Amino acid sequence: MANEKLMFDVIVCGGGTSGTAAAVAAARTGAKTLLIERLGALGGQMNVFGPPGFSYAHLFSPCGEQVIAGFAQEMHSRLLKENHAVPHSDADNVYRKGTGYTFSFVDPEWWGLEIFQVLEEAGVTLLLHTLVVDVTKDGDKVTGVVVENAAGRSEIGAKIVIDCTGEGDIAVRAGCDYELLPREQNEPHSVCFTMDGVDWDEFMTYMKENPDDFELRGPIGMSKEEKIENLRKVNDPTEIGEVMGFFSILDKLLKTGEWHAYSGMGFFMAPRPDGGKNGVIQAHFQHSAQVPNLWSCDPWDLTKGEIECRKQIIIAAKAFKKYVPGFKNAYIVKVGTEMRLRDGRRIMGDYKLRGADVVAGARFYDCIGKSAFPAGAVHTADNHTLGSVVQEGEVGGMAPNGGSYDIPYRCLVPLKVENFLVGGKHVSTDRAAYLRFLQETVVTGQAAGAAAGLCVKKGVTPRELEKEEHVKDLQDFLRTQGVILEGVN
Q1: How far apart are CA 266 and CA 215, in angstroms?
Q2: 471 pLDDT exceeds 80?
Q3: Could you point out which of 303, 349, 433, 445 has its C-alpha 20 to 30 Å from the C-alpha of 320?
């Protein structure tokens, strides 16, 4: 890199699902935008340390209303056109209808390829293989970032900087306030893996003949018998979405020492629609290898977790091949590059979204997107895998009537620090309302990028953009990008 200091309107730190959405949104406002990523790949939890088996899950609320669109929908539509996605079909899904657990499958590998073209079309400048290590400041105003790469250390100036690192690493260096749970209260982190070569006819026969061995889906109030009847109507395995349970097999494996203590057994369906007329379905294991008591901001902890997770992957893959019908000839085709970090810092902003807001279906004047994901749902490092845990004084649950809640812009504006925004899973919330899921990171990332670009255009700070007359312009722009800000529920 040259000695002269480069200057951009907007710098986005981190090229995952929030960072790519932020960069595209900022560039589309006309802002000169730079996206910096430490790896040579883009996509984060979509395709690097994912892919999540649920892809764009929960784009629809339990009552069937689409509540998340925008950049998430744009990428789905783009990939669908090229036969790298599966159409939204949950409205006709007998097995999951009314549960709110909807899936909008995309091929994560093609997402990771296509995003480069989308960024190029938007006019975003990319700087890969580069780590942001600090910010430059003038008083409480951020004026740029400090980076390190193969060329050494240098500074790059910006009018607005956005932290989309997922862990708030740059926000902390900028002096932002944050909350971080003790190690023992953190959700476990995991390394995913994907298996192909599954005989789905054999597996589905086994599942239908042994329904008591599985956690079956159905809306609140549905009887077990009705859930079993709905399961028997399923012809396409992708309609199941996620398979959890294997209770009798798990019990046996725990007694023989062929399973570990940190998760139950289960996987997500991962359809690859470009595999021919009927496509190919893979089994994606997102939480069969997970490690508790790790801080996402401690590299020694992370190293310990990476080692342990890979031991658990060997255990899990061997167990499925040996004991689960349909998996005898299955084989691993992908292992996540690094751990998926579920818990970490949350950067405190001008508003802190709470679980109580979620269960109230809260509406805000500065809404920049919506979600229907429940508050308080967490992973647990035991053979139950999932749980519902809230901290003292917090509230968990779902929005009323199977509806949604607003995400306010003020959650993206950190306290004390100016000319700085955050997007992604570390935006300002309490633990119960944590917006860490892929589709939510796209929502907040897109909004942060749009806000940054409008700040440059208007000559105002992100905090000044909170005023209603400016927020209205932000919302108008987001609507032009397909973002859903209103709804029936």
Answers
A1: 10
A2: yes
A3: 303
